[in-house]
């Protein structure tokens, strides 16, 4: 490999080729292997520590005697993966969060743009939004139970509210921070307000909007899980809490790991889509590795 | 010229401008007062002036991006009330939409005008070739040099066959060699259009090279309008420098 693949790699990026660069490229490859070893090693070490602490029933200031060990959890996980219920819960939580999040994304972007671009819309909407914003979404659970005919809708509502504000606020700031030059350019090419909206405001604010979407996805998970723990009949959050009430501690940890994995997965998707649609941003080469 | 170009350009002449006792400013500051300036259809009027003298302000007023506080600003017979496609603008830097490729930036004015996809592509291809960027057509602005970006802006401004092109120090940020190339390209491209050009610069040599006439911007208002056609260059140069 070496020379050949390095050269091909760089050609695909449209760079010129020189010997010095090929050597550097190989060195960078070596360094990235080392970094992966570090990353994986760190995880393994943490699991090892967990194993030691639980196997010896360590009783430091924290007490590890009732905490299930990694082996126990892994076995439990394996059996969970064979049950239909596990996947039903998973699906249920995903449907809830994706519905709430999608509604929040659309509403948050729309309202954020509206408030930033139109003074009258700001006058109408801002006082209301600023009054509701300080209330943590999870504190709306009682209201949600009163308002919505089904628990399902209530949970989606909570998730929506949680994700809405970060998206709306960052959209608003992104629109405000937009350089006027691009707008001027489109207007002097004959563009109307609508053209400016589609060709400048929406694409130009995407980097900021995706910042808001990332944060929104994070809080949406917090809220969907909490809401499920309080009022669900299905869902990963409900199942985790239920496991705790029946003293099934390995089940609790399986639930936690599942929530973590789902959260990581959805955040990665948001991140990935965000990077794709903001490829035009000036980025240093090799950043984001 | 493509079919589009011919159809759009047929029967079109350059736009004239007239400023009459016009004043401009921002907030509490007045930048220009009592400006009187006539720009004839099809001519290249270069406006020179020191930094901060209000050159960009004047150009933004002609573009319709800034309203006059007093007096009149006419484009042709009509008062300028806002920007429009017949008055295209080329900005000093970063006027391209960074999320659009070269090709999609050049197509933008045609897309706004709802020109069909096919005709848009044809016209864009032709203009991209004219400014020498065929190889870079699918690149994003951040992958271009400063000179290449200005070529794209030039193509984007002219692809819609505007009646006037307003250029705000378009080559100000370029090195001497690139600047000379761009000046040559501009003269070359302008030969085939009937568009009026108002070109802002603080470089007297650039003004003398490009202009039919030069307007010198003093602290407030246009001081003098000097003809550059005929006459010894050196004498003109001296006179402009004295007016500045
Ligand atoms: N948006 C603005 N708000 C307030 N003042 C402004 C604004 N734009 C320009 N000015 C002021 O107006 C004056 C003229 O600015 P203008 O940009 O027209 O000058 P210029 O001749 O184009 O200068 P340069 O050669 O540096 O580009 C300056 O004193 C500047 O401070
Ligand atoms: Mg200026």
From TrEMBL, chain A:
Residues covered by the ABC transmembrane type-1 domain: 90-274
A single Gene Ontology CC term: plasma membrane
A Pfam family hit: BPD_transp_1
Tagged with keyword Transport: yes
Family label: Belongs to the binding-protein-dependent transport system permease family.
InterPro entries: MetI-like, MetI-like_sf
Biological process (GO), any one: transmembrane transport
Residue intervals passing through the bilayer: 33-53, 94-116, 128-148, 154-175, 196-229, 249-273
Gene3D superfamilies given in the database record: MetI-like
Topology relative to the membrane: Multi-pass membrane protein
SUPFAM superfamilies recorded: MetI-like
Name of the protein in question: NitT/TauT family transport system permease protein
Keywords of the record: Cell membrane, Membrane, Transmembrane, Transmembrane helix, Transport
Stored PROSITE patterns: ABC_TM1 (PS50928)
Signal peptide bounds: none
Tagged with keyword DNA-binding: no
Location in the cell: Cell membrane
UniProtKB/TrEMBL annotation, chain B:
Membrane topology type: Peripheral membrane protein
GO cellular component terms attached to this protein's record: plasma membrane
A Pfam family hit: ABC_tran
Subcellular location: Cell membrane
Keyword Membrane appears in the UniProt entry: yes
Keywords of the record: ATP-binding, Cell membrane, Membrane, Nucleotide-binding, Transport
Annotated InterPro entries: AAA+_ATPase, ABC_transporter-like_ATP-bd, ABC_transporter-like_CS, ABC_transporter_ATP-bind, P-loop_NTPase
Gene Ontology MF, one: ATP hydrolysis activity
Principal location class: membrane
Origin: domain of life: Bacteria
ABC transporter domain boundaries: 17-244
Keyword Transport: yes
Protein name (database record): NitT/TauT family transport system ATP-binding protein
Organism name: Streptosporangium saharense
């Amino acid at each position: 490999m070496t020379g050949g693949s390095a050269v091909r790699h760089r050609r695909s990026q449209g760079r010129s080729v020189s010997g010095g660069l090929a050597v550097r490229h190989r060195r960078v490859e070596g360094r990235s292997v080392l970094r992966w070893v570090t990353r994986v090693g760190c995880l393994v070490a943490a699991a090892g520590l967990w194993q030691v602490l639980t196997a010896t029933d360590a009783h430091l200031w924290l007490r590890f005697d009732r905490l299930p060990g990694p082996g126990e959890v892994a076995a439990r996980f394996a059996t969970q993966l064979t049950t239909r219920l596990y996947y039903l819960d998973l699906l249920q939580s995903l449907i809830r969060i994706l519905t709430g999040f999608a509604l929040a994304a659309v509403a948050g972007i729309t309202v954020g743009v509206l408030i930033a671009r139109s003074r009258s819309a700001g006058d109408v909407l801002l006082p209301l939004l600023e009054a509701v914003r300080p209330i943590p979404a999870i504190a709306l659970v009682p209201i949600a139970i009163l308002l919505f005919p089904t628990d399902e809708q209530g949970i989606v509502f909570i998730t929506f509210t949680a994700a809405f504000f970060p998206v709306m606020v960052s959209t608003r700031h992104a629109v405000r921070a937009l350089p006027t030059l691009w707008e001027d350019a489109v207007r002097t090419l004959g563009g109307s307000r609508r053209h400016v909206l589609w060709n400048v405001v929406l694409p130009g604010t995407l980097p900021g909007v995706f910042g808001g979407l990332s944060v929104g996805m994070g809080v949406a998970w917090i809220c969907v899980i909490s809401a499920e723990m309080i009022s669900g009949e299905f869902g990963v959050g409900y199942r985790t809490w239920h496991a705790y009430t029946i003293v099934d501690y390995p089940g609790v940890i399986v639930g936690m790991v599942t929530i973590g994995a789902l959260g990581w997965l959805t955040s990665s998707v948001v991140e990935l889509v965000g990077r794709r649609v903001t490829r035009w941003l000036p980025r240093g080469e090799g950043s984001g590795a | 010229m493509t079919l589009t170009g011919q159809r759009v350009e047929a029967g079109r002449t350059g736009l004239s401008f007239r400023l009459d006792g016009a004043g401009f400013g921002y907030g509490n500051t007045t930048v220009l007062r009592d400006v009187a300036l006539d720009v004839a259809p099809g001519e290249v009027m270069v406006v020179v002036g020191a930094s901060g003298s209000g050159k960009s302000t004047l150009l933004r007023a002609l573009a319709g991006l800034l309203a006059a506080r007093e007096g009149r600003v006419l484009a042709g017979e009509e008062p300028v009330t806002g920007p429009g496609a017949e008055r295209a603008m080329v900005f000093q830097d970063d006027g391209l939409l960074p999320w659009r490729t070269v090709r999609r930036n050049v197509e933008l004015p045609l897309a706004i005008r709802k020109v069909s996809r096919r005709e848009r592509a044809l016209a864009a291809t032709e203009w991209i070739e004219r400014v020498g960027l065929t190889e870079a057509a699918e690149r994003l602005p951040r992958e271009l040099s400063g000179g290449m970006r200005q070529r794209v802006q030039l193509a984007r401004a002219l692809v819609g066959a505007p009646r006037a092109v307003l250029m705000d120090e378009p080559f100000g940020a370029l090195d001497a060699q690139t600047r000379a190339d761009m000046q040559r390209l501009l003269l070359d491209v302008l030969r085939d259009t009937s568009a009026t050009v108002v070109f802002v610069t603080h470089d007297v040599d650039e003004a003398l090279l490009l202009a039919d006439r030069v307007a010198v911007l003093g602290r407030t208002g246009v001081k003098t309008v000097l003809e550059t056609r005929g006459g010894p260059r050196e004498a003109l140069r001296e006179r402009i420098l004295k007016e500045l």
